[in-house]
Automatic annotation (TrEMBL):
<dbReference type="InterPro" id="IPR031826">
    <property type="entry name" value="IC97/Casc1_N"/>
</dbReference>
<feature type="domain" description="IC97/Casc1 N-terminal">
    <location>
        <begin position="30"/>
        <end position="230"/>
    </location>
</feature>
<comment type="similarity">
    <text>Belongs to the DNAI7 family.</text>
</comment>
<dbReference type="Pfam" id="PF15927">
    <property type="entry name" value="Casc1_N"/>
</dbReference>
<protein>
    <recommendedName>
        <fullName>Dynein axonemal intermediate chain 7</fullName>
    </recommendedName>
</protein>
<dbReference type="GO" id="GO:0008017">
    <property type="term" value="F:microtubule binding"/>
</dbReference>
<feature type="compositionally biased region" description="Basic and acidic residues">
    <location>
        <begin position="302"/>
        <end position="312"/>
    </location>
</feature>
<feature type="region of interest" description="Disordered">
    <location>
        <begin position="302"/>
        <end position="331"/>
    </location>
</feature>
<feature type="compositionally biased region" description="Basic and acidic residues">
    <location>
        <begin position="16"/>
        <end position="39"/>
    </location>
</feature>
<dbReference type="GO" id="GO:0048487">
    <property type="term" value="F:beta-tubulin binding"/>
</dbReference>
<feature type="region of interest" description="Disordered">
    <location>
        <begin position="1"/>
        <end position="39"/>
    </location>
</feature>
<dbReference type="InterPro" id="IPR022110">
    <property type="entry name" value="CASC1_C"/>
</dbReference>
<dbReference type="InterPro" id="IPR023247">
    <property type="entry name" value="IC97/Dnai7-like"/>
</dbReference>
<dbReference type="GO" id="GO:0005930">
    <property type="term" value="C:axoneme"/>
</dbReference>
<feature type="domain" description="CASC1 C-terminal">
    <location>
        <begin position="449"/>
        <end position="616"/>
    </location>
</feature>
<dbReference type="Pfam" id="PF12366">
    <property type="entry name" value="Casc1_C"/>
</dbReference>
<feature type="compositionally biased region" description="Basic residues">
    <location>
        <begin position="1"/>
        <end position="15"/>
    </location>
</feature>
Length: 704
């Protein structure tokens, strides 16, 4: 091994105490210098931020002052524009009077259902008519159903101040009397038919079968003449509609009747409570007090005279008058929430306590009957007519048509426990009704006067054939129900101008997209899409008044109209009712020249504000790449927002170079074209009123 290598390099010199102190001093000076620079920088940035904030605050105060200065002027102009609402109400009242006059001079023999002596005479004379056949009763039912619809429409369309309590009682009494008499006539005509069952017997089966189809009624009658114990499957006219009957019925003197009325005369009428008018009056006074307080604050700040306050009060008073004039009681009930929170809570708790349901009872605030009522009856076969020396002799029972009790009240003579099994029933679902989910079967409880779901089993639904099969323990009226709020809340909506005084309202839900055209005082279903596929409906292309149109859509299963109870069953985006109502009125005023739509930011802002997206739209065709602007409205202030639908975070920041205004009308006036403003000012008053009514009925700002 060679010699070890010597260690190279010098030993590291130790830092002296003086050098160490010098380093620490330099580091301390550098740290202090950096801190000073950071402090100066922070102070500079803070001063700049405060200056920007001061400028923005000053600008904000200037905009607020400017808004306050012209508020009364803008509200006066809005008051003049909203003169279309009382004008439209006057036209509707004139139309009601004109229709009464037209009926009077028509002299077609039909009664005016609103005149008590006329409708009472009609009912009395019809009661005296005897021996009417089913065909004659069905023909007469068209007039009766028309009279009932007229009375219901009067109750819905007439404003509360034009409808006295005695009139409500009279109209509802006439409706109930006509409904009961019509069903009685069907029973009497069925008895007349069954007396002749032996003469109408089928040659092959030996039993009688009768089928009558009409636009309002479908009737199936089967009489068991042969009493063949092996004949247990009853099917009508080579269809799948019918019954599977047990042996005991197959060997009995019975008849089976399936009377499918495409209308519902079983469910109790919705009451029109006088308290509704009291609630509405309370709301009105509450709102007026709020407005007076606001006016006092404005007047104090601007030191203006009382004349301007009166003008603003008149404007708001017109809004409250219009609110009271909305005909649909459901819409009015929904706005009772304007009362103070404590009062509102008490009302809701009272409502909940009054709607305590028994087991299996159908909550008619949550569910709706659809497709009419199926009256299922097992009837005792009456004595048959017998030919004798050229005469037909028949025994007429004094008690009339009797129901066969199944299962019997006493079963002592029957040995087998399962001698009275449930009867299998197969029904056809009305083709003009849309069920978004499998329908639920409910039966009528005559004692409790309500629908309930017990006593029904083995339910199966074939959507393609529109056939529903189930087993029923006892016969009686049966109906199909669907959740009234299945299409709520809405996913989105859009209101777009089409032509002069004509708009298209599109409401998109989880299951469907509904397009509604509105022109003047009429509405029409433009199209329906189910699962992104077009669906045909008999309502398409039919123009109706708004209230009639809403009723027709509900009856077809297309309910997009919240009731006063809907917020108990739907998670909603609650908005202050006064703000919401003002927004609908002003959106209606602008609807002839501007398109409006759902904004995702409406769910983020508080309940005192609403946000919609807006764009000017003067052509009939939809814009390929619309340039939407977001507007925020709080009832007394409108502003354009800096954010758009693609922004990441919500902000109430004002869009640059824009100002506050007291109304949406004056807000859009800042950037609207001359042609657009001309279209707005020349809009038909009935058109604006109809658009406002549909917006109030759908409550898009709270239920989207």
């Amino acid at each position: 091994m060679g010699p070890k290598a010597k260690k190279s390099g010098r030993k590291k010199r130790k830092i002296t105490k003086a050098e160490r102190l010098k380093q620490l001093q330099e580091e301390e000076e550098r740290r202090q210098r950096e801190e000073e620079e950071a402090r100066v920088k922070y102070e500079k940035e803070e001063m700049e931020r405060l200056e920007i904030q001061r400028i923005e605050k000053e600008k904000w105060h200037q905009l607020e002052a400017k808004d306050l200065e012209r508020r009364n002027e803008e509200l006066e102009e809005l008051y003049l524009l909203e003169g279309c609402f009382p004008e439209a109400e006057k036209l509707k009242r004139d139309t009601r009077l004109l229709s009464q006059w037209k009926h009077y001079i028509q002299c077609d023999g039909s009664p005016d259902p609103s005149i008590s002596p006329e409708i009472n005479t009609f009912i009395s004379l019809w009661k005296e008519e005897t021996n009417e056949t089913l065909e004659e009763v069905i023909a007469k039912s068209k007039l009766v159903l028309n009279l009932i619809d007229k009375l219901k429409l009067i109750l819905l369309e007439t404003p509360p101040y034009d409808l006295e309590d005695k009139n409500i009682i009279q109209y509802q009494g006439s409706i109930l009397e006509l409904q009961e008499l019509l069903h009685l006539k069907f029973n009497i005509a069925t008895e007349i038919l069954l007396r002749q069952a032996s003469t109408l017997a089928d040659l092959d089966s030996g039993n009688m079968e009768k089928v009558i189809q009409d636009e309002n009624v479908t009737l199936y009658v089967w009489a068991n003449l042969k009493k063949n114990p092996r004949y247990k499957s009853v099917r009508f006219s080579e269809t799948q509609i019918g019954f599977e009957i047990p042996r005991i019925l197959a060997t009995s003197d019975i008849a089976l009747r399936l009377l499918h009325t495409h209308y519902d005369h079983v469910t109790p009428l919705c009451p029109v409570p006088t308290s509704l008018q009291e609630h509405t009056a309370t709301v009105t006074h509450f709102v007026k007090d709020e407005v007076k307080n606001e006016e006092a604050a404005i007047s104090k700040e601007l030191q203006e005279e009382g004349k301007q306050r009166e003008n603003e009060s008149s404007s708001v008073q017109e809004e409250e008058t219009k609110f009271e004039e909305q005909g649909d009681s459901e819409v009015q009930m929904s706005f009772v929430q304007e009362e103070p929170e404590a009062t509102k809570f008490e009302l809701e708790m009272k409502l909940l306590s009054e709607t305590v349901l028994s087991d299996n009872e159908v909550d008619l605030c949550q569910f709706t009957t659809l497709g009419g009522v199926y009256h299922l009856d097992i009837l005792e076969l009456p004595p048959q007519c017998k030919p004798m020396k050229g005469w037909m002799i028949v025994e007429i029972l004094k008690e009339g048509l009797q129901k066969y009790i199944y299962p019997p009240e006493t079963t002592e003579d029957v040995e087998t426990e399962n001698a009275f099994p449930p009867i299998e029933v197969t029904l056809e679902v009305q083709e003009n009704v849309i069920f978004f989910e499998d329908p639920v079967v409910a039966r009528w409880d005559a004692e409790g006067k309500h629908w309930q779901t017990d006593g029904i089993s083995n339910v199966s639904y074939k959507s393609e054939e529109r056939l529903i099969t189930f087993s029923l323990e006892t016969f009686g009226p049966v109906t199909l129900i669907q959740d009234s709020h299945i299409n709520m809340p809405f996913q989105s909506w859009e209101l777009r101008p089409l032509d002069v005084n004509k708009v298209l309202l599109t409401v998109t839900t989880v299951f469907t997209e509904i397009q509604i055209q509105i022109k003047e005082n009429l509405c029409m279903l433009a199209s329906i899409k189910l699962n992104n596929k077009k669906h045909s409906s008999i309502l398409e292309g039919k123009w109706m008044t708004p209230i009639s149109f809403i009723c027709a859509l509900k009856e077809a299963g297309l309910n997009i109209f919240p009731s006063g109870h809907s917020h108990f069953y739907v998670v909603i985006n609650y908005k202050d009712p006064l703000v919401e109502m003002k927004a609908y009125r002003q959106l209606a005023l602008l609807s002839s020249a501007f398109a409006f739509g759902w904004s995702k930011w409406n769910t983020v802002c508080n309940s005192k504000k609403v946000i919609v997206k807006l764009k000017e739209h003067l052509t009939e065709e939809p814009t390929q790449k619309p340039n939407w602007t977001n507007l925020m409205f709080s009832g007394d202030r409108a502003q354009r927002l800096k954010i758009n639908e693609n922004s990441e975070a919500f902000s109430e920041a004002l869009q640059e170079e824009t100002e506050f205004h007291s109304t949406l009308y004056h807000m859009v006036k800042d950037f609207a074209s001359k042609k657009a403003m001309e279209k707005i000012r020349s809009s038909n008053c009935q058109f604006i009123d109809s658009v406002c009514y549909m917006l109030l009925s759908t409550r898009l700002l709270s239920y989207s």
